[in-house]
Structures are given as structure tokens and as C-alpha cells.
Specification:
single chain, Arc Repressor Mutant, subunit A, Rossmann fold, eleven-stranded mixed β-sheet, 3 domains, about 20% strand
């Protein structure tokens, strides 16, 4: 209260300006008497945080981007504490298509993998998460990293991709990241897709009981659902019940669930119990009243107005024990497009230097002529020296653009996409 009183005096009594800016976030075009000024200050208390509060942000955790001050991206990192289950519990990302949910969830998964936290992803969309295995295309990537004053980093992460699950057949979750690519299966055979989800969740339930017989504070596994509102379909009832059980016992398991959805209007009362278990929320730009009502219930009406002005890559973060904050999400290190899609391949090929492009074109030409794409043939047709050939081959392999196969004593080279 004393802090607001001090600011109200400083901003509305002393100033002689008719245009008053508060923390770069709000502007008034006329001076106000103190009573009205103080009322305005209290109304904007949710976004004009006292300076004493600024130090009370997460001091360590997953680097998801930077805090924003009005429309300006500051140098202060936004860190999400993902290693302690008491700090995190479960996470909800919401917003319209193109708002930045995919970038934020990808950044979260990357940070978890860098900390050796296991990740299981149920991709109920169209295979976007397979791109986690490939580095991000260059494009505007570097510019967005420069906006947060960080050096650009591009890299892929090892993943295992499944389209069905049968633990009784001896399947097991590997360490690292497992992606269940179920978008197409959901469109053709919903019952089979939801059976796969249930079997995987049941395996996680039983496995984590064995691994974590006692309460734990450490997050051991991140379970992410892309397009989680699809779990409201009648065929998914068993999946929802299993999720509720695991989410409620998260401290026994060390499991954190991450739910992504376009909007709460796609949810029903059946998901209310799941939302009640969530304590970390990132709201991207929304477009419907029900989502704004939910945001207001978590913050204040001021943040609803702020949400309507968000641009791509900006979000309102609501964390347990902290004031709401506006954040700018960092670009992901990995590819947001499906792995080795024609669009992704064209994007990656366009980034190559002239020698690398000539190397790839030589392979394409030899293949079209029906000739072997051995190292000797490529060197001869492309006029590469031995040293340059191996240097370029190593570079292309590191970018995921060159495959090697053994045929007798010869090594044949190929590119993943047949017609880039």
C-alpha cells in the first residue's frame, strides 16, 4: 500500500505533464486529482508491480524467454521452475492458432531434455513434434534470439516415435523423449488411438509406482498433450480417468502434465477437475469470452485487456506464488515443422552454402541418371577433393541432410527427401 501511495503521489501530484505513462504499460491524457489517481493505481495493481516485488521472480529454472515491460522485451530472463514438483505441479498453455503455444511448449520440452527429465508427448495434431529431432531452420530464428540478447542455438534432440503401444508385447519407454504421433490415427480410428493413449498412461502409472514408491520433490517425467481438448471425445473417457488419477498423485510419481489447447470453450465440465490440479498457466492471445473469464479468475480484469493486445510469441504467465507477468517466448532450438517434410527439407536446403548445395545437387543428378551415389562417384562428378568431400559430408550429416548406407565395401550417400 505504501508503495502504491508513493507512486500515485509521484505520478499524479508532482508531474506537470498531461500525458502520463505508468511503467510503459498505460497512458492517461489528463491529470487526475489524488483520489482518482489512487483509484486508478489500485485498478492497475496487477500489472504495475511494486519495485520490491521485482526480485521475487523465479531465480532458476527452464529458460523460456524474457520478461516484457510494456511492449519492450527486457534483458531479464523468464525462468520456469521445472525441477521441483511442488513449484510446478501441472501446466496449461492456451491461445489461438499462431499465438505461440507451439514455440513455448517446444522450449519447455527442450529445457526438460537438457536437464535429463524424461518426456512423453501425445501429439493429437499432425506430427509436428517429430520435428524435435531436427535443428530449427535459420529463417528469422537468429533475429528472434537477438531480441532476447542471447546467442542463437540450433539443435535437434533424439526421439523415439510410436503410432501405437502394447506394453504386453514388451514395448518400453526409452530414456529421453518419446513421441506418440496419433493425429492421423485419430482421424481414421479414434478407438484405436485412445486405446494407445490409455495403454501408455497405464504403463507410466505402473512404472512410476515402481520407480517412486515414496513422495518425491523432483520432476522425473513431463507428459505433454497437444490439442488436449480432443480427450473430451466419448472414446477417451478411460484416458481422462487415468489422467486424473496420475495428476492427483503427481507428488508420488514426480510427473508433471502439460495440457495445450486453443481455448477453454472446447472444454467441458469433465475437464474442470483437471484444471483444478493445474498451478502454472501461460495465456497466449485469446479470442473468446470463456477464455477471458478464466484468465480473469486467475488474475484481474486488467490482464484480460492486456491479453487482447498480445502479439505472436507474447504471453501472460501466471505462476504459483508470483504476480502475473508478461513474457516474450524464446524461439525453439528445434524444427517446429514435421521432420523431413518437403517444406522443412526445402527450408533446410536453402540455408546451405554453395559447396553444400552443389554436393546435394550432385547426388540428385547421379540418382536421376541411375548411377551409384558412392563417395568416389560424387567426388568425380562434383569435382570435390578428398578433404573437401569429407568435410562437406560431415557438415550435411550434422544437419540431418545426408544418409549413409553400406553396400559391400562401398558407402552410398543419399538425402532424406527424394524431391527437394
Amino acid at each position: 500500500m505504501d508503495e502504491f501511495l508513493r507512486r500515485a503521489r509521484a505520478l499524479f501530484w508532482v508531474t506537470t505533464s498531461n500525458k502520463i505513462v505508468v511503467e510503459g504499460l498505460r497512458k492517461w491524457d489528463a491529470k487526475k486529482p489524488f483520489a482518482a489517481a489512487f483509484k486508478v493505481m489500485m485498478g492497475y495493481a496487477a500489472i504495475v508491480q511494486p519495485s520490491a516485488k521485482l526480485g521475487e521472480l523465479p531465480a532458476q529454472g527452464a529458460f523460456l524467454g524474457n520478461l516484457m515491460h510494456g511492449a519492450k522485451v527486457t534483458s531479464r530472463p523468464f525462468l520456469l521452475p521445472i525441477e521441483n514438483i511442488n513449484d510446478l505441479v501441472h501446466i496449461y498453455f492456451s491461445g489461438t492458432t499462431g499465438g505461440g503455444k507451439s514455440s513455448a511448449s517446444r522450449a519447455l520440452v527442450e529445457e526438460a531434455l537438457l536437464r535429463e527429465i524424461g518426456v512423453v508427448i501425445f501429439d493429437l495434431k499432425k506430427g509436428e513434434w517429430t520435428g524435435l529431432a531436427e535443428p530449427a531452420p535459420q529463417g528469422s530464428f537468429k533475429e528472434r534470439w537477438e531480441m532476447i540478447s542471447r546467442e542463437a542455438v540450433r539443435r535437434g534432440f533424439p526421439i523415439a516415435v510410436h503410432r501405437e503401444w502394447n506394453a504386453s508385447a514388451g514395448q518400453t519407454l526409452p530414456a529421453g523423449c518419446t513421441v506418440f504421433d496419433l493425429g492421423e490415427t485419430l482421424d481414421t480410428d479414434k478407438s484405436h488411438a485412445f486405446e494407445t493413449i490409455y495403454n501408455a498412461l497405464d504403463f507410466i502409472d505402473r512404472r512410476m509406482r515402481y520407480w517412486s514408491p515414496r513422495l518425491t520433490e523432483r520432476v522425473k517425467l513431463l507428459v505433454l498433450f497437444e490439442d488436449s481438448h480432443r480427450l473430451l471425445e466419448p472414446e477417451a473417457d478411460r484416458c481422462l480417468e487415468k489422467m486424473r488419477k496420475i495428476m492427483a498423485d503427481c507428488r508420488a510419481y514426480g510427473i508433471c502434465f502439460v495440457l495445450l489447447s486453443t481455448s477453454l470453450r472446447l472444454f467441458s465440465h469433465r475437464m474442470a477437475s483437471l484444471r483444478g490440479l493445474i498451478n502454472t498457466r501461460l495465456f497466449f492471445r485469446a479470442s473468446d469470452e470463456r477464455e477471458w473469464d478464466y484468465l480473469e479468475s486467475c488474475t484481474s480484469p486488467v490482464w484480460v485487456e492486456e491479453n487482447k493486445k498480445l502479439r505472436t510469441g507474447e504471453a501472460i504467465a501466471v505462476l504459483k506464488g508470483f504476480e502475473p507477468m508478461k513474457v516474450f517466448i524464446r524461439p525453439p532450438m528445434s524444427n517446429l515443422m514435421p521432420a523431413s517434410s518437403p517444406k522443412a527439407m526445402r527450408s533446410k536446403l536453402s540455408e546451405l552454402d554453395p559447396d553444400e548445395q552443389r554436393f546435394v545437387q550432385t547426388i540428385i543428378t547421379l540418382r536421376r541418371e541411375g548411377k551409384r551415389t558412392s563417395g568416389l562417384q560424387i567426388r568425380k562428378a562434383g569435382n570435390f577433393s578428398g578433404e573437401k568431400f569429407y568435410k562437406i559430408a560431415a557438415s550435411l550429416k550434422g544437419k540431418g541432410l545426408l544418409l549413409e548406407t553400406k553396400q559391400g565395401r562401398a558407402t552410398l550417400y543419399d538425402i532424406p527427401e527424394r524431391d527437394p
